[in-house]
Every structure is written in structure tokens, then in C-alpha cells.
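TASK: fixed-backbone design
INPUT:
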């Protein structure tokens, strides 16, 4: 494809070892499709087996020779990026909140959900920072506030990183599985605080009306960008879904965002990145099988690179590259970032800030309550261990020893676990929530100051 266009894809591959159904066959099929595609940048989520990443990398290496697999926490972030353009920097920023270690079934804490990014050198745009992420999953948009708060913290931290990249003079492309509907608070944070544009919304300004009432499953995919819990997906068909997903034939959870540099030079030679088309892809079954490529569909976006006043963007004399093609420091995320404006071009509304703070405060109170409860369990276990220790002298006979040993081991494990989750993790969660609450209070004060200044003018 011409350098005046940029094609991107994001796909959640559902690649958890031993758990995901037909993983080996699906990953091989995904790699085959990607090898025959013309994408310039691909972001994948839930690629938790390094061998699967190696297989995909070998398949796409002819067109996408540059790639990065990201590691995080105990089981890895599951994030990978493939690029046609040279990768000149990479970083991963684990989110401060990812559920609790005691919630083993949910698993988010063990995989270390994170914001991964690569810095690529584009021949026309200069530096482009590509983000790939997978936000905290449990809770949905209507679940308990203490679970929604974790995803809100993820969204806030992700938005700060994307905003920093733009303020450093880079174009930003941000993609992934955000586990949030378009109208949810986390998406408001990402769109408004980072000033990111939703590629799907930009290329679908007018949603065609359904022929009669609610859309069909196919209309939901092609007109509304549904990527998860679709009845057209073999892994969602027959699955127990929440009411919203049942009503609208799925949910839109996968996104591609973009934005220009924060303060480009006042020049009609600075390239403009515009989304001209987005489509939901990987909607068919794997050829020769009765199952889908993943439990999510993929999302692709096509961008056009142009000049504000027209002209040939490929002519070096006409184009100003706003950032150097080489990084100034290996720590590219926070290097040479100019002081941000008090308020970005788009800002969170006061109502949104209030709703976010209410959710975070509810999570803060729940965390304190849960921490105290877990420490109480720890104290009870210690008391029972002391009782067993003292009472062991009056055991009726050697036949009781195995049972006492088993109970002692169990209580010792329970005490250690609840000491960790109640004190160590409990303090971690409280401190993380406190940090974000204070940042939002500062942000709200800055917004009010700016509004008062504007009214005074």
C-alpha cells in the first residue's frame, strides 16, 4: 500500500494455554490470514503462549519484519505488536490495579494487564507511538463499583500515557480490547482526557437505521461495530450473556483510536492523519471447521495521510515531519515531554469527573472493608494455630496426628494468604485508588480554574 495510507488491525486472539478451545488450530489460521493481508500495523491481545507469537511472527515476517512481544506479571500481558515500519523503542506500563490475587478464576492479576507501546519511524509521519492494551475484564459496565473502578483506573493511566506521547510531538494510534461499551465512563476518560478519536465513530458518522426494530446480528456487526458476544461467533452462540448483549446481539469492546501531535508546528506541511474506513473482520469460521477464529472479532482501520492544503504528501519538499526518526533516549515514553497545557483541547465533563470519583471512593471504602475482613481471618487462623499448639499435648493418640497436621498446614496457608491479600495487597489497592482520586481532584481544580479564567475574559 502507498505511504499515503496506513492500515491497522486489532484482534483479541483468546490464546490462553489449556483453557482456550481449539487454540492451536485457531492461531495457525489467524497467522495464515495475517500473512496474506496488507496491514501495516497489527496489535494482538491474549497471545499468552510465546510459541504462538513466534508462529505468527514467522508467518508475517515478509511484510511485517518488526515485532515486539510484551512480558508482564506471572503469566504475561498477552500483548504483541507487528509493524512494517522500524520499531525504534518499546515500553510496557502495567496498570496499578488488576483485580485481586485471591480472585484466581478471574486471572487478571496474574496476567498483569498493561498498556504496551512501540515507537515506529514512519517515512511521512515521523514518530508514531502505537499503543496496545487489554483493560481489566470483570464487572462489565453494570457490575459492582469496586470492579468498575479497576477499569476506570486502567483507563485513566492509559489516557495519561497516550496524552504524553502526543505532547512529545508524536502521532498516536491506540488499539486493543478495552472491555467497555462506547458510552461507558472508561471510554469517556480515554476519548476526552487523551483527546483520542474513535476510528469507528469517525468513519461511521451516521449509523443506518435497522430495517425493523432492533438490528439483525449481521447489522450489529457491520453497522455498529460489534466485536464480542455476537451470536454469529461460535464461542458466543448459546453462551449466557448479560441483557444488553442479548438485546443488541453483542457488544463493541474492541477499538482503534488515533490523534495528531498535541502541538504541531504552524505549517501547512504537517501531515494530517484521517480515518477513512473501519470494518469488523475475522467474522467467518476457520476454513474447514465449525468454530470461529477467536471469541472476539477483529477490527481494522484504514487511515489516509494528507496535507492540510493538498499536494503530494510523498514529496519530501512538501512534507514537514514533526518528530525526528530516531529517539533521543531509550526511555522514550517520558523523555523531553513539554509542560502540558492546563486543560487539553477536549476535557472530561464535570459530571463525568464526579461519577468517576464516586466509583473510586466506593472502591476505596470496599477495599478498606475487605482488607479488615481478611486481616480478621488471619487473626482467627493464628488463634486457632495457638489452640492446636497448646492442645496438642492432650491428643488422644497417634491416630489423630495426621488430621491435626493437615488442619495445621491448612490454617498456616490460610493465614499467610489472608495476611498478604489483607495487608500487602490491601495497602497497594488503597494507595493506588488514593493516587488516582487525588489526580482527578487536581484535574477538576485545573478545569475549574481554566473555566473561571475564560469567563473572566
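OUTPUT:
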Amino acid at each position: 500500500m502507498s505511504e499515503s495510507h496506513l492500515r491497522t488491525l486489532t484482534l483479541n486472539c483468546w490464546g490462553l494455554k489449556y483453557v482456550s478451545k481449539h487454540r492451536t488450530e485457531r492461531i495457525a489460521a489467524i497467522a495464515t490470514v495475517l500473512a496474506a493481508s496488507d496491514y501495516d500495523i497489527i496489535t494482538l491481545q491474549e497471545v499468552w503462549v510465546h510459541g504462538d507469537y513466534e508462529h505468527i511472527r514467522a508467518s508475517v515476517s515478509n511484510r511485517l519484519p518488526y515485532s515486539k512481544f510484551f512480558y508482564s506479571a506471572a503469566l504475561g500481558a498477552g500483548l504483541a505488536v507487528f509493524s512494517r515500519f522500524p520499531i525504534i523503542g518499546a515500553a510496557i506500563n502495567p496498570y496499578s490495579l488488576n483485580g485481586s490475587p485471591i480472585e484466581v478464576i478471574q486471572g487478571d492479576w496474574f496476567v498483569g494487564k498493561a498498556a504496551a507501546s512501540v515507537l515506529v519511524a514512519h517515512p511521512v509521519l515521523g514518530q508514531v507511538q502505537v499503543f496496545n492494551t487489554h483493560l481489566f475484564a470483570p464487572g462489565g459496565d453494570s457490575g459492582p463499583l469496586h470492579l468498575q473502578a479497576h477499569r476506570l483506573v486502567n483507563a485513566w493511566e492509559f489516557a495519561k500515557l497516550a496524552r504524553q506521547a502526543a505532547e512529545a510531538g508524536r502521532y498516536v494510534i491506540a488499539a486493543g480490547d478495552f472491555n467497555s461499551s462506547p458510552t461507558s465512563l472508561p471510554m469517556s476518560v480515554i476519548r476526552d482526557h487523551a483527546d483520542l478519536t474513535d476510528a469507528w465513530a469517525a468513519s461511521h458518522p451516521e449509523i443506518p437505521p435497522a430495517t425493523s426494530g432492533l438490528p439483525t446480528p449481521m447489522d450489529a456487526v457491520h453497522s455498529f461495530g460489534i466485536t464480542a458476544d455476537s451470536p454469529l461467533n461460535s464461542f458466543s452462540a448459546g453462551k449466557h450473556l448479560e441483557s444488553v448483549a442479548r438485546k443488541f446481539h453483542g457488544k463493541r469492546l474492541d477499538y482503534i483510536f488515533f490523534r495528531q501531535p498535541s502541538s504541531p508546528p504552524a505549517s501547512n506541511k504537517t501531515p494530517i492523519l484521517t480515518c477513512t474506513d473501519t470494518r469488523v473482520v475475522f467474522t467467518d469460521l476457520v476454513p474447514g471447521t465449525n468454530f470461529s477464529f477467536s471469541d472476539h472479532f477483529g477490527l481494522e482501520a484504514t487511515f489516509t495521510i494528507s496535507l492540510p492544503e493538498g499536494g503530494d504528501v510523498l514529496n519530501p519538499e512538501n512534507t514537514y515531519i514533526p518528530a525526528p526518526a530516531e529517539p533521543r533516549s531509550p526511555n522514550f515514553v517520558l523523555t523531553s515531554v513539554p509542560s502540558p497545557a492546563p486543560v487539553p483541547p477536549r476535557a472530561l465533563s464535570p459530571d463525568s469527573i464526579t461519577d468517576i470519583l464516586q466509583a473510586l471512593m466506593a472502591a476505596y471504602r470496599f477495599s478498606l472493608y475487605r482488607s479488615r475482613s481478611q486481616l480478621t481471618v488471619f487473626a482467627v487462623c493464628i488463634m486457632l494455630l495457638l489452640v492446636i499448639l497448646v492442645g496438642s499435648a492432650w491428643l488422644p493418640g497417634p491416630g489423630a496426628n495426621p488430621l491435626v497436621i493437615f488442619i495445621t498446614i491448612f490454617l498456616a496457608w490460610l493465614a499467610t494468604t489472608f495476611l498478604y491479600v489483607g495487608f500487602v495487597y490491601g495497602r497497594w489497592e488503597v494507595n493506588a485508588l488514593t493516587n488516582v482520586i487525588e489526580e482527578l481532584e487536581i484535574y477538576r481544580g485545573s478545569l475549574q480554574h481554566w473555566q473561571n479564567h475564560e469567563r473572566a475574559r
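COMMENT: The chain has two domains: 5-346, 353-456.
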